[in-house]
Each structure stands twice: as structure tokens, then as C-alpha cells.
Amino acid sequence: MAPAYKLSYFNFRGLAETARFLLNYGGIEFEDVRVTQEEWPQLKEKMPFGTLPVLEHDGKQAGQSIAIARYLAKQVGLAGKDDWENLEIDAIVDTINDLRLKLLAIHFEKDEEKKKTLLETAAKETIPYYITRLETIVQQNNGHLALGRLTWADFYFTTVCGAFDFFFGGDCLANSPSLKSLVQKVNELPAIKKWIEIRPKTEF
Ligand code: GSH
């Protein structure tokens, strides 16, 4: 029987890896579809808003990586226990996404002079601003980003922080031992470790 979930994305970790981690963590079988650039133009019109990732289940489709991760986190027991707990997780995830979007904008900047200035500002201001605060949160929260326990916020950070380095061109966590050890802890969870061993090897 075909797996109940189908997750479509491109052949990189990018915005689908949080969902892939959650599905593996929960032992949920899924079809890991990696769309090629040749296939994409035809498929794009069939997607809810013309982007990936898209999760399909029971003949239904949903886009938006963070919404998909939030849904899967509930399925696998990594969401909050009440609305306030979920708010705390969402606030951290949205903050990490703010940083991701700022670094992504720098990565796609075409004007080389402007890009150089933006990279300098990121190194001196943006990255320290966010990463120092996230580091303190982990230090004060039993080694986690929310609720003092493992939640999907930890999975989200672990799966997107590699892209920070890719966009920025440096080690964003160089001075953040607690965040580094959180990433290591998540990557060493048995189901995640197994997934990392077998997943397609991609640059980001
Ligand atoms: N906010 C959306 C999410 O988090 O899922 C962004 C989705 C998005 O921009 N996906 C990109 C995409 O589908 C890949 S990372 N690009 C192809 C296109 O726009 O044609």
C-alpha cells in the first residue's frame, strides 16, 4: 500500500527538511518526492500557490512549510500541550524564520557592492542580534528553544540553520555552543540519525 503522506519538494533539504525530520521522528511512512527543474513548470500550476513543499494526504493538498511542520508536530507529539505552549513554539519558529528571510534576501542580492554591505551588516548586527538571543534562550531552557523540552522548534532550527551558513557564507553558530549542542542532540536522535544516513546528499 502506498504511504498515506506524500511530501513534494525539490532535491534539497531547504524548506522540506523539518517535515522530513518530523515524519521520520514519528515513524510515519511518506513518499519523499524530489521534483526536478524539468518537471517543475508543469507541476507548479497544480500546486495551491505555485510553490513547494506541498504535503498530500487523503486526496488533499497543503502548502507552506511552517504550517506543514506545525501539523506534523501535532501528529508526532512535538507540539505544545495547550494554546499558550503552542504560541511560545510559534513565536520562536517565526523568529528563526525572520532571520532566515533576512539572510535569504542577502543571498539573492544581485548588486555585488550592495551585497558586500549587507553581508557586513549581517555579520556585525543581524546574526549576533538573533543568535545571541537564541543562544541565551537555549541556555535558560534546559537545552531547548521552547518549553524546556524537545519541540518542533528545535527541529525547525536544526533543519534551517545549515542554510544560514550557506546564505551567509560562514559559520553562524561559531560562538554559540548551546545552539550547536542542540543541533547535535537533534541530529543524534535515533530516527533522525538513521534518516541523515539514508537521505539524498545535497548541498543545503
Ligand atoms: N512560504 C513558503 C513556504 O514556507 O513553504 C515559501 C515556499 C517557496 O518559496 N518555495 C520555493 C519554490 O517553490 C522553494 S524553497 N520555488 C519555486 C517557484 O516559486 O517556482
Automatic annotation (TrEMBL):
PROSITE patterns: GST_CTER, GST_NTER
SUPFAM superfamilies cross-referenced by the UniProt entry: GST C-terminal domain-like, Thioredoxin-like
Domain GST C-terminal: 82-204
Catalytic activity, reaction form: RX + glutathione = an S-substituted glutathione + a halide anion + H(+)
InterPro entries membership: Glutathione-S-Trfase_C-like, Glutathione-S-Trfase_C_sf, Glutathione_S-Trfase, Glutathione_S-Trfase_N, GST_C, GST_superfamily, Thioredoxin-like_sf
CDD domains: GST_C_Sigma_like, GST_N_Sigma_like
Residue span(s) of domain GST N-terminal: 3-80
Alphabetized GO MF terms: glutathione peroxidase activity; glutathione transferase activity
EC number of this enzyme: 2.5.1.18
GO biological process: one example: glutathione metabolic process
Gene3D superfamilies: 1.20.1050.10, Glutaredoxin (3.40.30.10)
Keywords per UniProt: Transferase
Keyword Transferase: yes
Similarity section: Belongs to the GST superfamily. Sigma family.
Complexes and interactors: Homodimer.
Protein name as catalogued: glutathione transferase
Organism: Zophobas morio
Upper classification of the organism: Eukaryota, Metazoa, Ecdysozoa, Arthropoda, Hexapoda
